[in-house]
Amino acid sequence: MKNYIKADEWNIIEEGFDPHLNKISESLFSIGNGRIGQRANFEEAYTGETLQGNYVAGVYYPDKTRVGWWKNGYPEYFAKVLNATNWIGIDIDIDGEKLDLFKCEVLEFKRVLNMKEGTLSRTFTARLSSGKVVKVDAIRFCSIADDELAALHYSISALNFEGIITVTSFIDGDIKNQDANYDEKFWNEVAQHQENDTDYLTLQTKKTEFDVCTASRTTVLFNGVAQSSQAVLGDKYLARTTVIPVKQGETIHIYKIVTNLSSLNYDKSDLLRLAKVKIETASTKGFDELLKDHAAAWAAKWEESDIIVEGDIAAQQAIRFNIFQLNQTYTGKDARLNIGPKGFTGEKYGGSTYWDTEAYCIPFYLSTAPEEVAKNLLVYRYKHLDKAIENAEKLGFKNGAALYPMVTMNGEECHNEWEITFEEIHRNGAIAFAIFNYIRYTGDENYLAQYGLEVLIGIARFWKQRVNWSEDKQKYVMLGVTGPNEYENNINNNWYTNKLAAWCLKYTIEAADMVKRLDPEKYKTIQKKTKLVEAKEFGDWKTVADQMYYPYHEKEGVFLQQDGFMDKEQILVKDLPAEERPLNQKWSWDRILRSGFIKQADVLQGMYFFEDEYDLETLRKNFSFYESRTVHESSLSPCVHSILAAKLSDEEKAYEFYLRTARLDLDDYNNDTEDGLHITSMAGTWMSIVEGFAGMRVCNGQLCFNPFLPKAWDSFSFSIGFRGVQLKVKISSKQIWIINNSVQTLEISIFNRLHTVLPGEKAITYHEQLV
Ligand code: BGC
């Protein structure tokens, strides 16, 4: 665990430069706008440890699968969002010596991620080996007001010398993914062009043939006068060099305005023309105006999604960091995009879509963004339905059964470890649950007729075919699966998967009834399109759901994670020596699989989804049994535990679990922040506060709260949107305030008692409430 980030409510601050921490900071200080994003690499050269990272959402390469033992059904490739053209480059040469912080004496250094305005800035002074001291101030952003724009301002001052500073501003597309399976480069150059101080570089991804045109206009100002430059062209590289004699105390200002357009959105033949138009318009506005637009757009985002914690700066910083990163990663403007577990902050997980989106991210976007944003995440899966059906067919399923991929970019499976690719099928259930969750929250029942029902039918058909009848048990069973707990593979009757499958089957029948009622014509169209044999299929689904087998342990009084779980040695995490953790780094895989330690919420994930079905006593027993065996080696784990602990009124535990996700990356708990941030689990942090501490749920179409205040805090408040109403909720130890910023009156339940909240403010004192 590291502890070098300074506490601050709105900023992430690093002071002093330690090259050993550089890759961690590159992840932490990442910036993005949902379409483009990048790690916090330096503009000038750096020869120390670094992971250069620039990404364009949706632009990927199918990297040929690399496995030891090929199994039929494996996908041919793993899709990767590619490391793309580096547009920030500015080489600085001072009388023949390159500015490189790895080689200089760094006298002062400060890096700041301003989360309020969405900027990354850096200031430092450094002494070169010649003894010359320079000061640099740099600030940049990926505009959230216009997601195809980015800009930077870099200034360098000669502090103790007179000499020649040569500035080479460049864009470089000769980039490699560190995680390339066969050490290949993934881009071909299409065109280079230079015009009016602007460099244009168009690259094309191999195989997928996405074109991306990066245009960069550089302006170098010295004593207020624009300097002329010399063009340099190289392989996938365009630059312009400016040579400036400076005196002590003088400063050179470099501005770069950049656009990134891709063939995902435009005709390839039009990219250059559009880039020229865009760069002209942006340059006319200029850096300061672009920054103003960007900051205003961030202010609007914060208005919808901020959480304010009073009395605990570290907690305040952490939750804002999580919200900031989520908003940078996905804006919901484009239904073809999704949320990679590392967002734009690293290469791990290939930038692809996992079940994380449906199980963890949907609630955050439902409450903090317009309805379309979460809807687009669901539509993304609707658009992949045909591929999910194909995917199931490849594995031998029939009749329109759909198996959504474990990992995907375009709907095709690209995961290739059999015990996950073929067996971690619970992801199908999370996709169905997200549809339910969306409708429960928004009340948008039409979604089912529009998109949802077709997806549900495909999923229901899959479950029906995936179970088999056990003569012995006289029940339907599900063999050879991997549950969310990936420290068990190829098990039988994972309680969570069986539960989810049965629920999906029933929910699909309900959903069909609802569409039949609301839109009979559309229902007929869906019936025809999916070739639904209603009586037979519904009958089968109901039978399977009613007769599903659920492992249970009488003596412990708990749902059993899987058949045979109690045959394992029953040791608890508290008895595990600290030096043996994390297990995935200290133990062999064989030992992990044989042990009873649990990677992440599994039975408890099911109890979280279907909480209304279980009384508190059942939850308590299962929580205490499973939590004591869980090592939380997936960042997705603690949030579910935090929410359930809150429900069980175990406030201390709820807070303890919250702390484990909130600063996971900021403090580098798992020693892996340098690979990128844990974006999807950041949504879990938000859930811990809103669903955990505030106890927010939607019950019968109304918001309900069962709040408590963590002891370390004076109060906390959050913004949420609910069915067209924008609310602020503030919770202190004595009161809950609801500010209804709409003209509608709302009925809200607090501690199970209904309150009418008129437009304006409403404060409810807990003890009045309890009377
Ligand atoms: C977790 C999965 C998760 C994946 C991506 C794994 O470590 O076990 O549940 O989908 O990470 O976040």
TrEMBL record:
The keyword Hydrolase appears for this protein: yes
High-level lineage: Bacteria, Pseudomonadati, Bacteroidota, Sphingobacteriia, Sphingobacteriales
Pfam assignment, any one: Glyco_hydro_65C
Keyword field contains Transport: no
Transmembrane segments: none
Residue ranges of every copy of the Glycoside hydrolase family 65 N-terminal domain listed in the record: 13-263
Organism: Pedobacter hiemivivus
Positions annotated as active site in the UniProt record: E486
Keywords: Hydrolase
GO molecular function list: carbohydrate binding; glycosyltransferase activity; hydrolase activity, hydrolyzing O-glycosyl compounds
Binding site for substrate: W355, D356, K599, Q600
Protein name: Glycoside hydrolase family 65 protein
Highest taxon, organism lineage: Bacteria
Family the entry assigns: Belongs to the glycosyl hydrolase 65 family.
GO biological process: carbohydrate metabolic process
Domain Glycoside hydrolase family 65 C-terminal: 696-757
Start and end residues of each Glycoside hydrolase family 65 central catalytic domain: 320-687
